[in-house]
User: Which sequence fits this backbone?
């Protein structure tokens, strides 16, 4: 008994810094922020509770509504775009191609770069006077336009392109690893049965890649909620407020507009959004794990 | 870790040509921005104004690189990205060493000693990784201001360590779980304690994961922008923040060649890590993605 006690003590002491981080930094600041969202704090925190006033104000703020809408457009296109492109790349690389590792290196390198760098590269590529548009026009295609970053209606898609360029390689690498884990016999069986290649992918291979897609999808979705740097670097929210995103709205209200109550209310809404996205995933995982444990 | 199976098909079919056409056009989409960045940085502004971003430079001109490193202006300050580079090194190196060490201790303690409430802590840590940073920022700024840490080098290092904990703990826990428990039990029977087993047995065995985790932390912290903006303070701004200030707050004419040179300089360390480490990088992605 004594030994058991002693043994857990050293381990407990070793974990103290992390416990402190979890309790004070993670949970403590979260509670503090959520509390502030129910007050009328401006530059400094106040303890004047106003109920849900900040939240109702938030959803009447045009900029927040635009930000939230952009988050949804960007999130859906980015996540599904990355999954789709990443899957195509992985499927192509899995067809026993030459120079596979060179292709892999090229597809994945943008993932090593920061969002700031990504944003600045694409800001230059999409520069309407000197970028891709100008080059294509001098080739003779005078009507060619690629001025998305200065077009209110299309600017958010410019952000999607830049982000997709950065993130598709990640999906490619995860899905390719999943494909290499699939038994080669299944391919042979499908070929003998005369099933076309695309059909084999859709009906046999894709369902087995669910874990790889789930992992990639979760990683990408977490990135979506945090989207900030790439927008700041690429468009800084503009033109107008066409590419504003919630993370940027919160930062602006925290540090420039001195609107603490509104900013923390927005942060709380963002946190709830994460919960809504993550909970079904985790629940499904939990159920699957229990079912597997039950059948074994 | 990943190898294709079986012999390469030898006949050339329409499908094979289509396959390579797809792969090559995809490779162009991914590679062209890097190419454009490099050629732009080697041109003069007169050449850039011709509007031919895909053209090779008429002659190599390295003045933009010199300016980017030591003379480019962010607002009224014209010091280039050099200071940012040094700041990023000063922030990243200690933050990586400390967080990887804590991650290794956490992973080891959680997988072999199974302390009370260890699973709870791990669960909370993983949940914390999902929370958007924005919700932590203001209280953390206030708390650090009270303690005199705000806008200091120590402060930004501490913040990186704090927010790096979930990933490093996950990586090391998953790694130590695969090490046979008999090894641990044998050391226990020999009378070795918590720290001795850690330093003499587990740490040397964890070397591959130390490399992977360090690489990941290094890339992540080097590439950070948000935390640098909020916590570093004017004297310690990391390279990413300085780069953005140089490119996006220029007054007057923009020097695209200087901007691109500065961008490459900021990306060069993570790119070097990626190109040199190759398979390790991929392994780290796979290890980190297992649990999301």
Assistant:
């Amino acid at each position: 008994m004594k030994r058991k006690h002693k043994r857990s003590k050293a381990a407990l002491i070793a974990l103290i810094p992390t416990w402190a981080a979890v309790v004070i930094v993670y949970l403590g600041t979260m509670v503090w922020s959520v509390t502030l969202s129910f007050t009328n704090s401006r530059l400094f925190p106040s303890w004047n509770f106003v109920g849900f006033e900040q939240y109702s104000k938030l959803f009447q703020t045009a900029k927040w509504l635009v930000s939230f809408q952009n988050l949804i457009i960007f999130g859906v296109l980015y996540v599904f775009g990355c999954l789709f492109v990443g899957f195509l790349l992985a499927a192509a690389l899995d067809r026993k191609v030459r120079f596979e590792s060179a292709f892999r290196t090229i597809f994945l390198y943008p993932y090593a770069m920061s969002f700031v760098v990504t944003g600045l590269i694409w800001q230059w590529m999409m520069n309407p006077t000197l970028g891709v548009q100008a080059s294509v026009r001098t080739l003779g295609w005078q009507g060619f336009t690629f001025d998305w970053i200065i077009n209110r209606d299309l600017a958010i898609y410019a952000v999607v392109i830049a982000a997709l360029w950065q993130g598709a390689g990640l999906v490619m690498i995860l899905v390719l690893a999943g494909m290499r884990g699939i038994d080669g016999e299944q391919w042979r069986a499908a070929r003998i049965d005369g099933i076309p290649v695309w059909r084999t992918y859709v009906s046999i291979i894709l369902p087995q890649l669910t874990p790889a897609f789930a992992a990639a999808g979760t990683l990408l979705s977490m990135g979506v909620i945090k989207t900030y740097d790439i927008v700041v670097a690429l468009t800084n929210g503009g033109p107008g407020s066409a590419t504003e995103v919630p993370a940027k709205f919160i930062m602006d209200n925290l540090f420039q507009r001195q609107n603490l109550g509104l900013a923390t209310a927005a942060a709380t809404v963002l946190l709830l959004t994460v919960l809504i996205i993550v909970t079904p995933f985790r629940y499904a995982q939990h159920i699957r794990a229990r079912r597997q444990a039950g059948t074994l | 870790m990943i190898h294709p199976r079986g012999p390469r098909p030898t006949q050339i079919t329409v499908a094979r040509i289509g396959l390579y056409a797809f792969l090559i056009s995809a490779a162009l989409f991914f590679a062209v921005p890097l190419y454009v960045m490099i050629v732009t940085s080697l041109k003069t502004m007169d050449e850039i104004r011709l509007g031919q971003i895909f053209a090779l430079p008429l002659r190599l001109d390295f003045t933009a690189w010199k300016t980017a490193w030591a003379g480019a202006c962010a607002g009224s300050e014209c010091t280039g990205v050099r200071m940012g580079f040094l700041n990023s090194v000063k922030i990243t190196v200690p933050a990586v060493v400390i967080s990887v060490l804590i991650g290794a201790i956490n992973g080891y303690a959680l997988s072999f000693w199974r302390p009370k409430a260890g699973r709870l802590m791990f669960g909370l840590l993983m949940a914390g990784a999902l929370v958007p940073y924005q919700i932590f920022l203001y209280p953390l700024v206030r708390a650090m201001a009270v303690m005199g840490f705000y806008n200091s080098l120590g402060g930004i290092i501490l913040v990186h360590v704090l927010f790096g904990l979930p990933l490093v703990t996950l990586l090391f826990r998953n790694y130590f779980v695969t090490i046979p428990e008999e090894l641990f039990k044998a050391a226990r029977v020999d009378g070795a304690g918590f720290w001795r087993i850690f330093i003499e047995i587990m740490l040397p065995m964890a070397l591959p994961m130390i490399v992977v985790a360090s690489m990941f932390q290094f890339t992540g912290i080097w590439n950070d922008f948000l935390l640098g903006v909020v916590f570093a303070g004017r004297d310690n701004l990391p390279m990413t923040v300085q780069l953005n200030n140089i490119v996006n707050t220029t007054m007057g004419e923009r020097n695209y060649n200087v901007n691109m040179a500065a961008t490459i300089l900021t990306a060069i360390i993570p790119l070097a890590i990626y190109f040199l480490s190759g398979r390790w990088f991929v392994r780290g992605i796979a290890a980190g993605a297992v649990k999301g």
User: Anything to note?
Assistant: DSSP finds 14 helices and two strands in chain B. The mean pLDDT of chain B is 88. The longest helix of chain B spans residues 82-113. The two ends of chain B are 20 Å apart (CA to CA).
